[in-house]
Each structure stands twice: as structure tokens, then as C-alpha cells.
Design goal:
The protein is about 30% helix and about 25% strand. It is an alpha+beta fold. It folds into four domains: about 200 residues, Endonuclease, Chain A (2-Layer Sandwich); about 160 residues, 2-Layer Sandwich (Endonuclease, Chain A), CATH 3.30.870.10; about 100 residues, Immunoglobulin-like (Sandwich); about 90 residues, no CATH class. Strands 10-16-15-14-11-12-13-17 form an eight-stranded mixed beta sheet. The protein has a seven-stranded mixed beta sheet with strand order 5-3-1-6-7-8-9, with helices on both faces. The mean pLDDT is about 85.
């Protein structure tokens, strides 16, 4: 189940999202704490074109444009405000992602000295077939929507008409209602997003899910945390109940697999009233967390962390690779066994006070029996065999009681500054000035006392952040609701994209994005051939055939090959021709689309009564 060295136990992010045979995407709602725009583009490829995220099509802007065009009205992604990563090379195609993303900024909460986090990592996807029938997939993850290479965990299940316990889906309905409330009126197409979420919640209330597993059967519980009155109360769960004398909250075995920790939770699990005869406790965490609790606190736990060779493995192998990354655990897994009953918890919740009590999180609890799964099975999985096997990526550790990492503490403070800025009222206005544009930004409230800089997305000219700012002489493709915010303290600096409601962005900006990709006849033919191809992987080969056959030349007035393929598409899947219509409407530069092709498409449009 959790074997890192077994391909059967490993899940590809793209394959997780691919629709079942015979179905296509109807609506996808995703949530993440941090967000990488390039990773989101890869997800659009999976959902829009039914291709895995490691597909070579990711390198082709034509296919990405087609995927984004197909997906933009069918996807909503919620993320923590101020946690969008700044891409290395900001692409004009990234501007099409604005309408998909909804930043969430939770208000301050009592009991913690920082903002609670919007931290769930989920996908709820509605698929539809050609007969108008729906099916659903729900995925709970520990992985953010980024290219981070840490070790994560994922659980997914599909809807089933054969399972009658629709009440198990009720927490998802409440979860969607909470997400709907996070769509502010300033969000692009706010009414459409809210309507989609409301409709999905209504339709989901009559569906059930199945784990399709003999080990767990249908004994599962969906547990959204921090969403208000309808949140799951983790404080009364057998794992965390504050009533420490209740017999239901004792255990024989406990496994805590979490990258981040709070000493208070370790103290809680150590309490003798939770123990039964022969109780064992196992903690798997990062070595950087070993200084957060004392040796006395850790005495009752066997503690494991990844070996340094694993954490630094990529760096050791690829000394010349500038993009090398360290890796560590990021999964959140809890296992509790009492007698023959075993509860397995998976999701986004770290073993920290904020995660359990304040953050918005999503967990799922699976229940099984000791004969199917327990601590011994779990450790054998993650150790890839026996503990003393040289292939075991983990090693036994002890609490270090060291000092806090000063650089990490500074980074955390800068993150809180960015979150503070994201919660201030802001609005920007675009004004046209000849062939250029000016942007005026107004920020209400008191700015944090820090060294901060801001610049529009795709214009790397940072200016000191003030309550009133003016950016002049911007190109059309530099207008965006994305702005790069940089915060600096001593030798530490972090950059994030923040989203600021911006009015007055011309409708022609989307035309400009399309024209930046489809900028000549060759790229236009590639797009058309891609849409008309029998499948997406072979369409690029089709493009080469068209060019080598001489079908598309200025001297030719007829397009027999294209006509034949358009006729076939019109008979088999006429909606595909709308993708060509979108392109024809978006292309404004002259000389890219021959008049003959526009006439040919117009004939098909009228005959098929396409929009």
C-alpha cells in the first residue's frame, strides 16, 4: 500500500485525474495550499486532453493553448492567498489561468500567533459521458499542486450507483458550500463559479463513493476540518479526543507519520491513560523536527526519519544540475489500532496544534481489521522490507533538543508578512495610453513594516510597495491580476504571486495571448491538425504529413485533406469544430488564416449550426 519501491503503490498525479473510459471532464474543483502555475498548466493538460502530466505535449505551446481553452470554464482551483510560486520564465499562457484560481485568506483565529492556513489538498471531479450520465472522483492528498519532490500520499475513490450510503457524501457537500463562500465578488466570473459549486453540491448529495477495496470495504469517513459549524470535530475523534479518560480513546498501536510536529500533541499521545497493555508508539518525521520536543517526550516513541542519502540523493547524483532538489517526507498518515480494529487516517493534516484546531484541512479515515493492516504491515511497506535491510530508506533517530533554524524562522516571518498584505483591501485599474497601458493600484489599511517590492506579472521592474502605486507603459501582455510581491529581511528574500482585482483589462488581452502562440501559418496548421487528429498523441505527426504533402501553401485554393478531416470530425464529434472557431475568433493578426479556410469553416458552422 505504501511501498516506495513498488510501482503498483505509486500514483502519477496526471493519471489520477484522467477520466474513466467513455467519459470526459464536466467540472473539476481542486484545493491546495501552495500553487505552481506550471504544475497547474500540467493538470489542465491531464483534464483537458486526457494526457498524463509528464507527457511530451507539455513542451508544446499549441497543445497547452488548446488544453487551457477547453478547461478554463470547467475548473476552479482554490489556494492559500500569497502562496502562488513565481515561475522562472513567466509565460503569456499563464494569464489564462487567472480565471481558474481563487485565493483564500482566512481571518485571524484565537490561540495562535499566525494566520490559520487554507491547507486541504483535494480534487472533486465530475465526469460526463455522451449520454449525459455523470460519475465523480474524490481524491484526498498530502501533496500541494507544485513540482515538489517530497514523499506524499494520495487516496481516491469513484462514485458508485451500487452503494446506497449517500450520507457519507454529506461532508463533501458542506465542504463545497464552504468553498463557494470563499469566492469573493471581485473574483473573475464569481457568479459562474458560485453557481457551478452550488450545482455540484446539489448533484453530489445523491451520489455515493466506494473504496473498491476488500481491506477497507465501505467503512470510511470524509473529514473536512476548519470549515465552520459543519466541520469534523477532530477534538472528539479517537485520535485526539480531549476526554482522556474515555475508554474509546485508548490504543494498542499508534503510528504518527508527519513532516511537521507540535510538542503538545506528543505530550497528549504520551499520556498513560491512553495506553493499553503492550502499547507501542511510532513516529516518522523529518530530522529538522527532532529539535521540537525533548528526549523525555520522545522516550515512548520509536522515531524514524529518512536517511541523509535519500534526502540529498538528487544533489549527490546530479552535481551539475541547477534544478536539483532535496526530498523528504510530506505525507500525513496516522494509524491507530485497538484490539482487532484499525483506523487509518490520510490527508493534509500535520501533527501540529494549528492543523488539528485552526486550519482548513481535509482528512479521510478508513477502518479495517488487524488481519488486513496494522503497524507491522505499515512499517514493512515504508521500510521496503525489514528494518535492518540496507534498502530501507529510513533510520532510527533520537530527539536532538537543538536550536531553531534562524533562517527558517525568518522565512516564516516573511510568509506571515505576505499573508498580511493579501488580507488588505486592494484594487487596481487599467487605463489605456496610446499603444501602452498604465495601472494604478490602491491598497487600504496599514502595510506591514517591512522591506517589500511589487511589480506586475511579466514585468520585472519591482517598485517599493506603498498604499498608492502607479505602473506606466505596460504592454498588453503585462496586464494581469497576477502581481509579484517580494519581501526581504537581511539575507533572506521570498517572492510570491499575489492576486489583486484589476478592472479595465481589455478583452483583447486574450487575443494577444493566442496570437503570441499562434503567430504564423505553420502554428495555425499545427493547432488545426491537433484538433482534427484522430487522437492527441498522433496529431503532431498529422501536422507534419499536412505540411510535407503541400496541402497548405499560398498557391493552393483548395484544402482537400483538411476538408476530409473536418467532414469526418463533423460527423463524429462536431463540438470539436468549436475549438477551431475559438481560434478563428481570437486571431487578429493578418496573414495567419487564409480567407479560404475561414470560408470553409463558415460553411461547416452554418451547416452544423455551431455557435
Amino acid at each position: 500500500m505504501f511501498k516506495a519501491n513498488d510501482n503498483h503503490d505509486r500514483v502519477g498525479y496526471g493519471s489520477l485525474l484522467l477520466p474513466p473510459p467513455g467519459f470526459h471532464l464536466s467540472l473539476a474543483v481542486g484545493t491546495t495550499y501552495s500553487l505552481d502555475l506550471e504544475a497547474l498548466t500540467a493538470v489542465c493538460l491531464s483534464l483537458g486532453l486526457a494526457e498524463d502530466t509528464d507527457s511530451s505535449l507539455l513542451q508544446n505551446p499549441i497543445t497547452l493553448l488548446n488544453a487551457l481553452q477547453k478547461i478554463s470554464e470547467k475548473m476552479i482551483v482554490f489556494c492559500e492567498g500569497g502562496q502562488i510560486k513565481m515561475p522562472t520564465s513567466p509565460s503569456a499562457l499563464s494569464l489564462l489561468l487567472e480565471k481558474i484560481i481563487v485565493p483564500v485568506t482566512l481571518p485571524k483565529a484565537r490561540g495562535i500567533n499566525h494566520f490559520p492556513a487554507f491547507h486541504p489538498k483535494t480534487w472533486l471531479i465530475q465526469y460526463e459521458n455522451n449520454f449525459g450520465e455523470y460519475c465523480y472522483r474524490f481524491a484526498v492528498m498530502s501533496r500541494n499542486l507544485t513540482f515538489d519532490r517530497s514523499w506524499d500520499v494520495c487516496f481516491s475513490m469513484d462514485s458508485s450507483k451500487g452503494v446506497k450510503a449517500a450520507r457519507k457524501s454529506k461532508p463533501l457537500v458542506h465542504y463545497l458550500e464552504f468553498l463557494r463562500d470563499q469566492v469573493k465578488s471581485t473574483s473573475q466570473n464569481a457568479r459562474g463559479k458560485r453557481s457551478s459549486l452550488r450545482r455540484l453540491a446539489e448533484e453530489l448529495s445523491s451520489f455515493s463513493f466506494t473504496t473498491d477495496s476488500k481491506e477497507f470495504g465501505e467503512d470510511f469517513e470524509i473529514m473536512p476540518l476548519g470549515i465552520g459549524p459543519n466541520a469534523y470535530d477532530m477534538g472528539n475523534d479517537p485520535l485526539f479526543c480531549s476526554n482522556t479518560y474515555a475508554a474509546d480513546y485508548t490504543f494498542h498501536e499508534l503510528v504518527v507519520f508527519s513532516p511537521f510536529l507540535s510538542g503538545s500533541l506528543i505530550d497528549y499521545w504520551n499520556k498513560p491513560e491512553h495506553s493499553l497493555t503492550g502499547t507501542t508508539r511510532v513516529l516518522v518525521t523529518r530530522k529538522s523536527e527532532l529539535s521540537k520536543f525533548t528526549k523525555e517526550q520522545s522516550d515512548q516513541f520509536r522515531i524514524y526519519a529518512l536517511k541523509d542519502d535519500i534526502v540529498d540523493g538528487e544533489e549527490a547524483i546530479s552535481d551539475q544540475d541547477e534544478n536539483k532538489q532535496k526530498q523528504d517526507i510530506h505525507a500525513k498518515i496516522y494509524l491507530r489500532k485497538k484490539y482487532s480494529d484499525v483506523d487509518l487516517y490520510l490527508g493534509s493534516m500535520n501533527a501540529t496544534y494549528s492543523a488539528v484546531n485552526k486550519n482548513v484541512e481535509m482528512m479521510i479515515r478508513l477502518r479495517t481489521k488487524n488481519r488486513y493492516y496494522n503497524t507491522e504491515f505499515f512499517l514493512k511497506d515504508i521500510f521496503c522490507g525489514k528494518e535492518d535491510d540496507p534498502q530501507n530508506p529510513f533510520e532510527l533517530c533520537e530527539a536532538t533538543e537543538g536550536k531553531e533554524d534562524a533562517a527558517a524562522e525568518t522565512t516564516n516571518q516573511l510568509e506571515q508578512i505576505i499573508k498580511t498584505v493579501c488580507r488588505l483591501p486592494m484594487h487596481a485599474t487599467v487605463a489605456e495610453r496610446g499603444e501602452k497601458y498604465n495601472v494604478t493600484l490602491e491598497i487600504g489599511g496599514t502595510l506591514p513594516d517591512a522591506q517589500m517590492y511589487l511589480t506586475p506579472f511579466r514585468r520585472d521592474v519591482p517598485m517599493t510597495l506603498t498604499n498608492s502605486m502607479h505602473f506606466s507603459q505596460l504592454d498588453l501582455l503585462q496586464l494581469s491580476e497576477f502581481y509579484m510581491l517580494k519581501v526581504v529581511s537581511d539575507d533572506v528574500a521570498i517572492e510570491r504571486i499575489i492576486m489583486i482585482p484589476t478592472s479595465g483589462i481589455p478583452d483583447a488581452r486574450e487575443n494577444a495571448v493566442v496570437n503570441s502562440v499562434v503567430k504564423d501559418k505553420r502554428s495555425f496548421v499545427e493547432y488545426v491538425a491537433f484538433v482534427l487528429g484522430d487522437d492527441y498523441l498522433l496529431s503532431l505527426m498529422e501536422d507534419r504529413k499536412l505540411k510535407s504533402s503541400g496541402v497548405w501553401n499560398d498557391e493552393h485554393e483548395h484544402f482537400p485533406a483538411l476538408y476530409e478531416k473536418m467532414l469526418k470530425t463533423a460527423l463524429e464529434d462536431p463540438k470539436r469544430l468549436n475549438e477551431i472557431g475559438y481560434l478563428l475568433n481570437m486571431i487578429t493578426d493578418e496573414g495567419i488564416v487564409p480567407d479560404e479556410f475561414r470560408e470553409l469553416y463558415e460553411t461547416f458552422r452554418k451547416t452544423l449550426k455551431l455557435k
